Amino acid sequence: MSQFNILVVYPHPADSATEASGTVALHAERGDKVTSVVVTHGERHHMQWLADQKALPEDKRDPNLKSLTLDGYKDFKAREAERIAEILGVHELILLGWTDHEIYFDLDKVHQLADIIRRVKPDIVITRFPSDTGSTTNDHPVTGRIVMKALEVVTNRVREFDGVDAYHGVKQVFFSFAGGEESNSNDVFVPGIVPDVWVDTTSVIDKKVQAMDQLVSQGYEGETARWIAEARDGRWGMIAGCAYAEPFLRPQAITYDSLPMPPRVVGKQYRATVLHTDRGTARNTPSATPPDAYRLKL
Ligand SMILES: [Zn+2]
Q1: Of 75, 130, 244, 273, which residue has the fewest beta carbons closer than 10 angstroms?
Q2: How many angstroms separate the alpha carbon of residue 5 from the centre of ligand 1?
Q3: Which CATH class is domain 5-294?
């Protein structure tokens, strides 16, 4: 297998821990280069730490809370994103500082990501499934759409007009899910959006849990991280026939030289019951939340 250069783009630091983070950890372990772009600091997302602080008597609160500013909170969030990237083995983390909850599809954002694609030169791009499935225009699918438009832009540059060459190196895009947009099945005849690629993340589920342990600002550490892994990644694993999994959807069907029969299909054995034994258990993962994670300033 050759080495891949993978670009992952998400709206918020939390997405970099909760979505395709197991897959990112797997590819980092096999020596692939991963660049993680997080377009906002998630500075208005699930303000659990702030709510917990405000619930404390004043003398028990973080002493820096009194002088809290947007920039100070963004630093706190940036540290979380950095710790997540380190646990997953990400080679480079890029925070773009767009405004949380205000990601709109615009030309500047498309060109900012196009510049990053030209610089990073990825073979693989992972981003959020770009279709709106809810009633609001949410940061997540908009980010996916900005990424797809940036890919269109980089492939259609003309040096004589634009001063840069076209970049055609992205071989494959994978859309990831947060859970809830996709059908609760891997049966392609079930109505709705059925993921077409499942990655077995069992061997790295501890890294995913420990990445989520960094999200103190959102209260994701501890029990919540283990609950997410067991309830959602475990459900995905149950659908995929392994302990824990992550689902993806590719934008286009794939052409092969002959019928695809990957090792997991060829090596398939009859199992009367798919038993969950010796596969690791996310809920027993030791905590990776450093004491400093609760402090607004270091
Ligand atoms: Zn998010």
Answers
A1: 273
A2: 23
A3: alpha beta
